[in-house]
C-alpha cells in the first residue's frame, strides 16, 4: 500500500510548487495511473515515493512505514522502478542489468541466475537469446521489457513505472500493455504508473489520478473517471472518445445474454463491450454474437453505458 | 651510442629512476583526481569552477611548477614526485568530471533509483561510464608526466634528465643525446601504448 498525504514539492527558485498538496492512496495489490499534461508533476510525484526527490511537505507511507524515516537505499531496493528513459546500464549485459537489485540485496549466485531467467520469461524474452546481450543490441521495445524485468527482479511489493512504454510503436505498445496487465494481475503488486496516454491509463490502472499544475484534479476508479469527469478540464483531457474507452473496460458478461443468434461470426473469448459495438457497426445490425451461442443487443449496451 | 655501450648500467639506472618518478607521480595524481572528480561531478557549480581552475593550471609550464615548489619542498625525489602529481591531476580530474556529467543520465538515475549507495554508484556505474574519457585524460597526463620528469634533474630528482644535464656540463654529446632521445622515445611509446588501450576500452564500454 502507498499512502501519500499532503505531499508538496517546490523546487528552489520556482514561483509555484510542482506538486501541490497531493493526497492519494494506492491500496495493496492495486494499480493507480497518474495522467496529466506535460509538466503537471507526475514524475516529480513518483520520484518522491522512492525519495529520489525530497518533498517540501507531506508524508509518504509504504506498507504502513514512513518512507522518510527509512534508509533511502534500503527503501529503493524494495521499490521496483522503471524510469522514463529506461536507463539500462550500457556497460552490462541484460542479465547483469536485471541482477542489479538482487545482487545489492546479497542474493547468492544461483538464486540470482534463476531469478534473471524467471523475470526474462515473465516479460516475454527468451533467456537463452537475450541474457548475454548488451543493451545496444536490443530494439527499443526489448529494452523497455528489460527495464520492466529489472524493476521486478528483486520481487518488490511496490512498483513505480514512469512511462514504461514511451518509446515503442503502437503495436508493440499494445502488446506490452497486454503483458504488463497480465503480469500485474498475476503478481498482485502495488503499482503507481505514469503515462501520457488515457487509453493506457484506464487499461493498466485500477484507479486513475489526473494531475494539473501539480494539483490532483480527480482520483477515481478507471470506469468512474471516464463516466464522470470532475470538470471541463478533466473532460477535455480524457477526450471525446472516453465513453468508447470505457466500454473497453467491461467484458461481454456485463450485458444480459439473449438466446437469439446474431448475424456474422461470434465475438472471440475475452472480447469487451467495445468489441461488441465495433462488431455491430461493422455488420450494420443491432446485435452481436457471443462466443459459443447467444447474443448481446445495442439497446442493452446503450442502457449500460448510460447508467455509468 | 658509444656512450651507451660503455655505460649500460648508468643508462638503465636513469631509465629506471625516470619510470619510477613518472609512475609514482602519475599514481598519486590519479589517486587524488578520481575521488575528487567523483565528488565534484555531483556539484554543478564546483564542477565548473574546478574545470576552469584546472584549465588555468594546465597553462603553467612544468618548469615553473618545479621551480615554485623548490622553496617549499626543497630538492630531491619527493618534491619531484609531488610536482609531477600536480601536473597529472588536472587532465584526469577534468575528464573524470566531464565523463560523469555527460554519462547517460537515465543510467545514473537508474543506479540511484535501484538503491545503490554513493560508493556503489561510483564504482559500478559512474566510473565505468566515464572510463573512456578518464582514460584519455590519463593518457594526456602520462605523456605530460613522462616528458616533465626530464626536468626533475633541475631539482635533483634524477631520471633521464640527469644524462642531459651531465652531458651538457661535461660537454659529452653522446651522453646528452642518449638522454634526450630516450626521453622522446619514452613519451612517444607512452602515447602510442595508451592510445591503443584507449580505443580498445572505448569500444568495450560503449559496446558500439
Ligand atoms: N530537478 C528539477 N529541478 C527543478 N525543477 C524541476 C526538476 N524536475 C522537475 N522540475 C519541474 O517540475 C515540474 C514538473 O515536472 P515533472 O517532470 O514532474 O512533470 P511530468 O508531469 O512528469 O511531465 P512529463 O509528462 O513531460 O514527463 C516542471 O515544471 C519541471 O520543470
Ligand atoms: Mg515525466
From TrEMBL, chain A:
Family in the record: Belongs to the ABC transporter superfamily.
Which terms does the UniProt entry file under GO BP?
A: quaternary ammonium group transport
Protein name per UniProt: Osmoprotectant transport system ATP-binding protein
Q: Which domain of life is it from?
A: Bacteria
ABC transporter domain: which residues?
2-238
Task: Please name the GO terms that the record assigns under molecular function.
Answer: ATP binding; ATP hydrolysis activity
Q: Which UniProt keywords apply?
A: ATP-binding, Nucleotide-binding, Transport
**Does the keyword section mention NAD?**
no
Spell out the SUPFAM superfamilies in the cross-references.
Answer: P-loop containing nucleoside triphosphate hydrolases
Write the signal peptide boundaries: none
UniProtKB/TrEMBL annotation, chain B:
Which compartments does it reside in?
Cell membrane
Query: What CDD domains does the record tag this protein with?
Result: TM_PBP2
Q: What is its main location?
A: membrane
**Gene3D superfamilies named among the record's database cross-references:** MetI-like
The record's section on SUPFAM superfamilies has: MetI-like
What residues does the ABC transmembrane type-1 domain cover?
15-194
Instruction: List, in alphabetical order, the GO biological process terms annotated in this UniProt record.
Output: glycine betaine transport; transmembrane transport
Family, as annotated? Belongs to the binding-protein-dependent transport system permease family.
**Name of this protein:** Osmoprotectant transport system permease protein
Q: Which organism is it from?
A: Belnapia rosea
Amino acid at each position: 500500500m502507498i499512502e501519500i498525504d499532503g505531499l508538496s514539492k517546490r523546487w528552489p527558485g520556482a514561483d509555484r510548487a510542482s506538486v501541490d498538496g497531493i493526497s492519494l492512496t494506492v491500496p495493496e495489490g492495486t494499480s493507480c495511473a497518474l495522467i496529466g499534461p506535460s509538466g503537471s508533476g507526475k514524475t516529480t510525484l513518483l520520484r518522491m515515493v522512492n525519495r529520489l526527490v525530497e518533498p517540501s511537505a507531506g508524508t509518504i507511507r509504504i506498507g504502513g512505514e514512513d518512507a522518510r524515516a527509512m534508509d533511502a537505499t534500503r527503501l529503493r531496493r524494495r521499490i521496483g522502478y522503471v524510469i522514463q528513459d529506461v536507463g539500462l546500464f550500457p556497460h552490462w549485459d541484460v542479465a547483469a542489468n536485471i541482477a542489479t537489485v538482487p545482487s545489492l540485496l546479497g542474493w547468492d549466485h544461483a538464486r540470482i541466475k534463476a531469478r534473471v531467467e524467471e523475470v526474462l520469461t515473465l516479460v516475454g524474452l527468451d533467456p537463452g537469446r537475450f541474457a548475454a546481450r548488451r543493451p545496444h543490441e536490443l530494439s527499443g521495445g526489448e529494452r523497455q521489457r528489460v527495464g520492466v524485468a529489472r524493476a521486478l527482479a528483486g520481487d518488490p511489493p511496490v512498483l513505480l513505472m514512469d512511462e514504461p512504454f514511451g518509446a515503442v510503436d503502437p503495436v508493440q505498445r499494445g502488446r506490452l500493455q497486454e503483458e504488463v496487465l497480465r503480469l500485474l494481475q498475476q503478481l498482485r503488486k502495488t503499482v503507481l504508473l505514469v503515462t501520457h496516454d488515457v487509453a493506457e491509463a484506464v487499461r493498466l490502472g485500477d484507479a486513475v489520478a489526473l494531475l494539473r499544475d501539480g494539483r490532483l484534479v480527480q482520483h477515481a476508479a478507471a470506469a468512474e473517471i471516464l463516466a464522470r469527469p470532475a470538470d471541463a478540464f478533466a473532460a477535455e483531457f480524457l477526450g471525446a472518445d472516453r465513453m468508447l474507452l470505457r466500454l473497453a473496460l467491461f467484458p461481454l458478461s456485463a450485458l444480459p445474454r439473449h438466446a437469439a443468434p446474431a448475424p456474422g461470426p461470434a465475438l472471440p473469448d475475452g472480447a469487451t463491450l467495445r468489441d461488441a459495438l465495433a462488431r455491430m457497426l461493422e455488420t450494420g445490425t443491432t446485435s452481436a454474437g457471443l462466443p459459443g451461442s447467444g447474443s448481446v443487443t445495442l439497446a442493452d449496451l446503450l442502457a449500460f453505458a448510460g447508467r455509468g | 651510442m658509444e656512450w651507451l655501450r660503455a655505460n649500460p648500467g648508468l643508462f638503465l639506472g636513469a631509465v629506471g629512476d625516470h619510470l619510477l618518478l613518472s609512475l609514482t607521480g602519475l599514481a598519486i595524481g590519479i589517486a587524488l583526481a578520481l575521488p575528487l572528480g567523483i565528488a565534484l561531478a555531483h556539484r554543478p557549480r564546483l564542477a565548473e569552477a574546478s574545470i576552469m581552475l584546472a584549465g588555468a593550471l594546465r597553462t603553467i609550464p612544468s618548469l615553473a611548477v618545479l621551480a615554485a615548489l623548490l622553496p617549499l619542498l626543497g630538492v630531491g625525489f619527493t618534491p619531484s614526485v609531488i610536482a609531477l602529481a600536480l601536473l597529472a591531476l588536472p587532465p584526469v580530474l577534468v575528464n573524470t568530471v566531464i565523463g560523469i556529467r555527460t554519462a547517460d543520465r537515465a543510467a545514473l538515475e537508474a543506479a540511484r533509483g535501484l538503491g545503490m549507495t554513493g560508493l556503489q554508484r561510483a564504482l559500478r556505474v559512474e566510473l565505468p561510464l566515464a572510463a573512456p574519457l578518464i582514460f584519455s585524460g590519463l593518457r594526456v597526463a602520462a605523456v605530460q608526466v613522462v616528458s616533465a620528469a626530464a626536468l626533475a634533474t633541475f631539482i635533483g630528482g634524477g631520471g633521464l634528465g640527469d644524462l642531459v644535464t651531465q652531458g651538457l656540463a661535461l660537454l659529452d654529446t653522446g651522453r646528452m643525446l642518449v638522454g634526450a632521445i630516450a626521453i622522446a622515445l619514452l613519451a612517444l611509446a607512452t602515447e602510442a601504448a595508451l592510445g591503443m588501450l584507449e580505443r580498445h576500452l572505448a569500444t568495450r564500454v560503449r559496446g558500439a
